[in-house]
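Exercise 3.2. Students should predict the tertiary structure of the chain below and write it as C-alpha cells, then compare their answer with the key that follows.

Predict this chain's 3D structure.
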Amino acid sequence: MQINSQQIDLILAEKQMQRTNLAKLSGISKSNLTLILKRGSCTTKNAGKIACGLGVPVKEIAIVPSKDSTHETVNQND
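Answer key:
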C-alpha cells in the first residue's frame, strides 16, 4: 500500500509527536517505521498500525490511485 509520508509528518506535527512515539504506539520498530516512511509503502497491516498510532483512519495516510482516464474517450464533436 502506498502511503503519504508527508501527510504522516504533518499529523505528527499537529499532535506534537515524534516518530519514536509513533513507532511505540504503532507497535512497529523505529527502524522499520523509518524505512516505511522513506519508501512510501508498506503492508496494509502496517498501514493500519500506523493509522491507529496516529489516531486517524487509514484513508488519511494512504495514497489512493486515481482512475485511469486514458481508457475513457470523450467525443468533443457532440
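Discussion points: The first helix runs from residue 5 to 14. The chain has a mean pLDDT of 89.
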